[in-house]
Amino acid sequence: MLLMVSAINHKHITASAFALPNGHSLSIRQCKGTPNLSYLYQQRTEDVDNLVFNGDGVSVNEEVDDSSEEQHELRFSGVGRLYANKETADDSSTLSTPPKNIILNRLSSATVAIIGLGGVGSWTAEALVRSGIGNIILVDLDDICISNTNRQLHALSSTVGKLKIEEMKRRLLDINPGCNVTLVHDFISVDNANSIIQSMLPKLTLVIDAIDGMYEKTALILACVDNSIPIVTCGGAAGRTDPSKIVIEDLTKVQEDRLLFKCRKLMRQKHGFPKVAIPGKGKKERVRNWRILAVYSLEVQQKVGQVSETTSSFRTCDGALGTACFVTGTYGFVAASKVVEMIAIDKLMVPKKRMKPKQ
Fold first, then answer.
1. Which of 17, 40, 163, 272 is a good FRET partner for 214, with 20 to 30 A between their CA atoms?
2. 49: buried, middle or exposed (CB in 10 Å: 19+, 13-18, 0-12)?
3. pLDDT number for residue 319
4. What is the pTM for the complete model shown?
5. Residue 161 contacts residue 144 (beta carbons within 8 Å)
């Protein structure tokens, strides 16, 4: 007879064996702090003194602090090892702290603001927390609509009608209880973009722009430029079906994105940014990067009726163009990957200061 253990309380450390009827035992591959265990029915053994049943499954005497340094390393050491490989051998040989721990400390000490928690921002936020970013600021004032289900991470039957940033905070803290999640219940506007960014200083490390609306988006980019805060801005994901065409480059290099085109044009005409050469048209000019990273797709965007990317962020739940989670999620993951990389290797891209516009 094999005794099945149906539940393990993830806050406890498991033992190495469990006594079964007829003198047999259940061997457990120990994985401290996680519920992902495998069970093997093996040879006879003696009873285990310190293993007891409770209503949740199996537990032992000592509890594990979910927010402890040990738990943090268990959760995120894989990310630390990944980026530690980017450190040179010469550098690592002279460090008293293992490179992996240096990476984890950089990530856990960073503060990243995600502006807009929709189809792109929700996936970005989860990716950042799962990568060990220790301080997250969520900025949005929208609630979850049932029509968000096709593209937004937090959209569930049980969350419809609830605020996006509040549901996202619950989810993020369930992933990493040690993460500091700050909520800003507001929409970014032309009038408040700079003040919202300044309110996050001096701890703010980087901003991810995942909002719609040409004027609001431009105002947010300008606020980061004026305050020397690195920013990754995300273009329009609607009307696209091929996630393999999504790339990240300097805003001056963006193609096939009407929303980012209009932001760039506004920045050039009204806010002192240099002219950008149009690929394939006329004499090619060398244009210095603005050092503003942009996530966009090389796929030609669909056109349906009269769709305007100049509309405000105060908008209906769904637009005329269709969307899918495998596209919006990829936008979010590409943005998150660049943010994690810049922080992990300690090479942040600060935007170039704009020139004074001509009078």
1. 163
2. exposed
3. 64
4. 0.77
5. yes
